[in-house]
Specification:
This protein has 310 residues and is an all-alpha fold. The chain has one domain. It is 80% helix and 3% strand. It contains 9 helices and 2 strands. The N and C termini lie far apart (84 Å).
Length: 310
Amino acid sequence: MSFLSTRRLNFSKSKDFHERSSLTVSDLHSINEAINKRAGRKLLPSIGVSIFLIFLVWASLATYRVFFAALVAIAVLLGIRELNRALSAASIHLPLWALTGAGIGLSAATWIGGVSGLAVATAIAFPCLLVLQLPQGTENFVKTASASALVLMYLPFLAGFLILLARPYNGLERVMTLVVLVGCNDTFAYLTGVLFGKHPLAPKISPKKTIEGLVGSLIFTTIGGSLAFVYIMQSDWWLGAIAGLVTVFTATAGDLIESALKRDMAIKDMGSLLPGHGGIMDRLDSALFAAPALWLALEIVRRAQDSGLL
């Protein structure tokens, strides 16, 4: 075979190789786009942001737990701004600075005074919001007051339970257990929904969510909860299984409630701060409803152990 023929043969093989490689890359891109379309979000940026947030939470708790309280307070303030922007588009105008002050006050009171501090601060903040609304007159008073109360309870109050989880000496373990539970719920609901989802869970609220996704999250969050309680909390596996079941229903409820808010206001995401997720509220929605349930479960277990029942 001549040198020229050999070069042509090698060139042909090289061309075929590049065509096959291009086909493979194109196929992977198509698969990724199909997954993104079916799931309703971009997968790779979502994974990257999730890893960064988990590291941020771990780092704040592993150094000084008060840093985590500050991190929660910052997330609350950003969430309030997102809700204010979304509600303004629906002609509902919140007292932004008053809610911002309430968010800071509730976070600080919770870290300093525990659950009592959270309760008292909420009881003070609510009437203050109403009083500050009085100079605006009676027009849209009920609408604004109702929206303000919703935002106060939805963000600063529920987020206070994230801080309550972090307050004790084992705050790192408690919060990371919540991260595992919520992460298992969100991840496996997403994966099983993408792979097997056929039957909508709540088509009028969130068309992408499926019954198959809920079943997947039930199975894997129960397993994840069992493992988290054994290896992170140094507790009984069956307590983790119960916590996993409770988390699935509370976290899914939080997700659906936020979806209902967005659908009512005709918006896709609360913001665009977190690539692949949307806004802060799009990431907090599950944790805000799961945190009070986990805090209550851990309190019941602690008191049962102190009394000798466990």
